[in-house]
Structure formats: structure tokens, C-alpha cells
């Protein structure tokens, strides 16, 4: 019989949590023939990336995944063979009792946040707490050997390479989104949290000798874009130009379309976890807006990734990339940092491709989870 998997997702950051778990659920079904129930407590956030979702249904099937609404009032539900609590969310007490009452205890895992910190390797797959005899395990995605790897569907990099080598396919895709960039313009995507440093970056882009077409999917950064433009009520489809910079707002798109948007762009500014990983698979230079945490502990995660990511760069290119990321995440001087990065663009661009291929040599996250389950049983 196929293994039964329950994935619990409590939507905290609008799209990042559900973005990761939705990708994972589909991959487990398609590539590993698992029976998957995805429990989600916010179907309206889910609907943005899967428009077929009916937010009024407690149970439905989408792309081979059984989608369940995670209710406040829990009813009797038998536990699965594998139970994943995504991003340390707390399972319903009634479900935990069902796990303990099972004839065979399930494999219970906390799928943790992505981190490049060295300690992750030592904690990956270690036992955590127990609940009435049911053992919980840590499972860490990561960039280093000895971690759970990154979400990556079979054939993804080959699809991306073929798409990036097909100028007509890219043009057709962008035109379907309403994007008609000037010939030779630098194409940048911007998906970020609110950021006080955005204006300084847009200033330098607008005064550049090379035109830039900035694509901004609907999201939290729109307020800062509006302030810089001096307009109100930006909506999808709006296009504004100031000197060398064209700003265009895009509708929120499905995950597969967002992947292709990243593949089309010369540079991708992303946020959170799901888009961060997808930007790396695009093989293009990127800028990560990490989720802010109390006492700035998120900066430790940022520094750990930068140390790993820039290790193979020349000292000057590494310093330029680090300066840009730190400026973006600490309200620094984005104008000067961007100018420094452009001085090392060929090297940084080639490195993004090399990094992508190197990460692609590791087992993907879904496969690593299945392998852990198979070794556990």
C-alpha cells in the first residue's frame, strides 16, 4: 500500500508556508506515489497560488493532493503513516492523541525553516520530543551535505535551461503577462517585504545609462513603490516610467508562472523561503529579503548563507554581493551597493549558474523525506 502522509501548514506569512508545503505535497504525489493530505488553516492565502481552490470546502482534491481545511473544532481523524508539522506548527491535540492511539506509531517530523548555519547538519534527523511514545524528529532543509536539501522537482533544471535558451518562449511568456520591455533593458523582479531602502535603489536604477524594467508582483512592497512614484492605489497592470526605470505591477501568479518569471529576469529580489529557493534554481543573481526576527537573529542566518554562497567568488565580488544583501536587510546604502555589484556582474552572474548546478547535485527535499521514512520503517 502507498504510504499515507499528513502535512500540516499553519499560514503565518501569507504565502511562504503554504508555498513550500503545496510544492512538497504535489511532488510527493507525482514522483513518489504517496497519498497526501495537506491540512491548511487559511484557504484564502492558498487560493492565491491555486485559484482552483474552493475556500468554502473543508475537503477537496487538487492535483492529486487531498486538501483539508484545518478547523478550529477538530473532529476524529485517523493519523497517517508520516506526519509533517511544517515550520514547527503545533498539531491539534486531538490529532496527537490519534497518533498515540495508532496500532503503529507514525513517523512524526518537524520540517524546520531553511538555514545555512553549520549546526543544522548536526541536528538534522535527530529525535526531538515524545508524545505518549510517539517520537518526533527534526528535519532540516539545507544547502550542505548532511541536510535535507532543497525542494526541486525532477527535471526542473533541465526545463529552466531549455527555457532560458529559447528567446521566443520567454518573449511569449512575458507578453502573456502584459510585459513588453524595451530592447536591451535589464529585467528585474521584486518580491519583498516593506523596505525603507527601496527608494535609494530605485533612484540609482532610474539614473542608470541602461534602462531597467522592474516587475513587481502584488505584495507588501507595493506601498514603498507607491511612495517612491508619488502615486496611490497601485494595482496589477499599472505601468509607470521615471527616466531609465519602468515599474510594472503584476498580478499574483501560480507557482509555475512565478518560476518562469524568475527564469526570464536578469536579477531577482525575493523574500521568505519559497521564492528564495526558486530564485536559486533560476541560476541568476539574486537578492534575499530575509524575514525579520526579534533581536535581529535573522541576520545570523543571512550571514551564514552569504558565507557559504560567496565562498567561491573573488574577494572583491564577494564583498560587493555581501554589501548589497546587508544594505537591503539593514536599511543601508542600496545605491552605492548596487553600483559596486554592477562592477562585478559577469562573475556574479556566472557564479549564480554554478551555484545552482552544484546544489542540484544533492538529493532534493521530497526524496530525502521519503528516504528517511523508508530507513525508519
UniProtKB/TrEMBL annotation:
It catalyses: dTDP-beta-L-rhamnose + L-arginyl-[protein] = N(omega)-(alpha-L-rhamnosyl)-L-arginyl-[protein] + dTDP + H(+). The keyword Transferase applies. InterPro entries: EarP. It comes from the Bacteria. Coiled coil: none annotated. One of its GO terms (molecular function) is protein-arginine rhamnosyltransferase activity. Keywords: Elongation factor, Glycosyltransferase, Protein biosynthesis, Transferase. NCBIfam families: efp_Arg_rhamno (TIGR03837). Protein-arginine rhamnosyltransferase that catalyzes the transfer of a single rhamnose to elongation factor P (EF-P) on 'Lys-32', a modification required for EF-P-dependent rescue of polyproline stalled ribosomes. Belongs to the glycosyltransferase 104 family. This is Protein-arginine rhamnosyltransferase. It comes from Pseudomonas aylmerensis. The gene is earP.
